[in-house]
Automatic annotation (TrEMBL):
PROSITE patterns hit by this protein: ACYL_COA_DH_1
Protein's UniProt name: Glutaryl-CoA dehydrogenase
Organism for this UniProt entry: Actinoplanes xinjiangensis
Sequence similarity: Belongs to the acyl-CoA dehydrogenase family.
Keyword hit for Nucleotide-binding: no
Pfam families: Acyl-CoA_dh_1, Acyl-CoA_dh_M, Acyl-CoA_dh_N
Domain spans labelled Acyl-CoA dehydrogenase/oxidase N-terminal: 14-115
SUPFAM superfamilies in alphabetical order: Acyl-CoA dehydrogenase C-terminal domain-like (SSF47203), Acyl-CoA dehydrogenase NM domain-like (SSF56645)
Gene Ontology terms, MF aspect: acyl-CoA dehydrogenase activity; flavin adenine dinucleotide binding
InterPro entries cross-referenced by the UniProt entry: ACX4-like, Acyl-CoA_DH_CS, Acyl-CoA_Oxase/DH_mid-dom, Acyl-CoA_Oxase/DH_mid-dom_sf, AcylCo_DH-like_C, AcylCo_DH/oxidase_C, AcylCoA_DH/ox_N, AcylCoA_DH/ox_N_sf
Needed co-factor(s): FAD
Domain Acyl-CoA oxidase/dehydrogenase middle positions: 121-211
Gene Ontology biological process: fatty acid beta-oxidation
Length: 380
């Protein structure tokens, strides 16, 4: 049981699901946590872990939304970068093919992706289009017989420096609709260059992508993706995953701060005995508990097939906001030790900024919820 799960939400998992969570937690504790700071500091990806992730048998498996969310929590608790790597591959890339691909396309690509023999990336965001990408997407797709020609730029594309399959979203010049295309990494005219000098998620290999007359066959166009509404179906699910990751980051920060407070001596006693320190810990526990409760209910709505865009948008906006507070309070409690990698909190503070922004900023997700509760769109 997690120290940070004060209301014992994990008890809602079946025995089999709890065993899966335990197995993943043990893997992350042994393989990811000990090397996270080292690879984060060097801004390198631990490629040797890819096949070890495959051994967990997680990608492509049918499971409850509660278990799926809890696994995202565990990955966020271990390291937000590795959680992002997995979320991009198994959530965004595989999810796009699962949601928008034909049966033949699913059979062609998903098994190799599930075994991590082929790694996926998801290319939606552009240098000039983030929050307004639904209407402002500039990457174009032009059909020439049974071939599509892609031109444009993408930015902040996770996994793209080493991904085998990149799901690229482009606007069809003929009908103006957004469509998805699976581009293989060695396709002529396609280049991916690592983004340097990041201060968050440094393990994630984000790239700037350029496409100049990139030619892909009609068989690589996702056959059930006809407009941005189809893209949004993928984002609805993955936003929920980011909320769970944020809870994992909160719980990790709380657990580290709680342990530190019991060990750190000032004025002849552990700082855990001071009222102001206890107040910080209670605030952290409250944020983590409230956010976890929201995510659990969201998972129940997902499993019932009744969840909507506003449900995942509210969870993403709320949980990542509370996460920022928690990691900030943890850094405050650790004082100077909170800004070095040795205690992990410094990495958490930096990584939290990326989770707060990607998969829709707080403002954009707030507008999604605002539209739902008022009946009025206020995006422009």
């Amino acid at each position: 049981m997690l120290v940070g799960d004060l209301y014992a939400f994990q008890d809602l998992l079946s025995d089999e699901e709890a065993a899966t969570v335990h197995r993943v937690r043990e893997f992350l504790s042994a393989e990811v946590v000990p090397i996270a700071n080292e690879y984060w500091a060097r801004a390198e990806f631990p490629s040797h872990l890819i096949k070890r992730f495959a051994g967990l048998g997680l990608a492509g498996e049918e499971r409850s939304s509660l278990l799926d969310g809890w696994l995202a929590l565990e990955m966020g608790r271990a390291d937000a970068s590795m959680a992002t790597f997995y979320g991009v591959h198994a959530g965004l890339a595989m999810g796009s093919i699962q949601e928008c691909g034909s049966p033949e396309q699913k059979e062609r690509w998903l098994p190799a992706m599930a075994s991590f023999d082929r790694i996926g990336a998801f290319a939606l965001t552009e240098p000039t289009g983030g929050s307004d990408v639904a209407a402002g997407l500039r990457t174009t797709a032009r059909r020439e017989g049974d071939t599509w020609v892609l031109n444009g730029s993408k930015r902040w594309i996770g996994n793209a420096t080493f991904a085998d399959l990149i799901v690229v979203w482009a606007r069809d010049e003929a009908d103006g609709q957004v469509k998805g295309f699976v581009v293989e990494k060695d396709t002529p005219g396609f280049t991916a260059v690592k983004i340097e000098n990041k201060i968050a998620l440094r393990i994630v290999q984000n790239a700037d992508i350029e496409m100049v007359e990139v030619r892909v066959p009609e068989s690589h166009r996702l056959q059930l993706g006809h407009s941005f509404k189809d893209t949004a179906r993928v984002l609805r699910a993955t936003r929920a995953g980011v909320a769970w990751q944020a809870v994992g980051l909160m719980i990790a920060a709380y657990e580290i701060a709680l342990r530190y407070a019991g060990e750190r001596q000032q004025f002849g006693r552990p700082i855990a005995k001071f009222q102001l320190v206890q107040d910080l810990l209670v605030r952290m526990a409250g944020n983590a508990t409230a956010s976890l409760g929201m995510c659990v209910r969201l998972a129940q709505l997902q499993d019932a097939g009744v969840y909507k865009d506003e449900h995942s948008a509210l969870a993403k906006a709320y949980c990542t906001t509370r996460m920022r507070e928690v990691v900030g309070w943890a850094r405050e409690l650790l004082a100077g030790n909170g800004i070095v990698l040795d205690y992990d909190i410094g990495r958490f503070v930096a990584d939290a900024e990326a989770l707060y922004s990607y998969e829709g900023t707080r403002e954009i997700n707030s507008l999604i919820v605002g539209r739902a509760i008022t009946g009025h769109g206020a995006f422009v």
